[in-house]
Amino acid sequence: MTAPERIYNWLDSQLSIARHYGAIDYKGHRYIVAWGEPGQPLVRPDVLAREAKEARDAKRKAEAEQPAVQGNALDQGVREELSIGKAINRAARDLPEGWEIRIDLERHAGVVFLIDPDGNETMSENGELFSDQINAAIDAARAAKEGDQHG
Hints:
By secondary structure, the chain is an alpha+beta fold. The chain has helices at residues 18-21, 45-65, 72-94, 130-150; strands at 6-7, 23-26, 29-33, 42-43, 100-106, 109-115, 121-123. Strand 3 and strand 4 form a beta hairpin.
């Protein structure tokens, strides 16, 4: 039997423990809570990576079908690489103590995860660019840290 890509209605089951950890292993497969999706399903990381790749491919195809300004695609790629470097440097500088960012990469796809001091991980879904996802994860960690200090 193939493992389901998404598990819905898990909050009222034994799988609800995942809400405390951000993920769970179920029947030999890892599932991550997709907080940003309607119904907040548990989703396999390989599915998230595949869907991110498909979205990027669709965007690239749409951009390729539109007339490009000379040098725009190259300049945009270089700008994104520089932005990723700046985001990584920002993470090293501004990430609160005990928080981590993990980037899982494979050919044509990648996912950014934010890991809190308790080891709970969530996928950063803000933005299509890696630099946006890294910066969103940093902002989420800092907001959570500030909330803990004021709460």
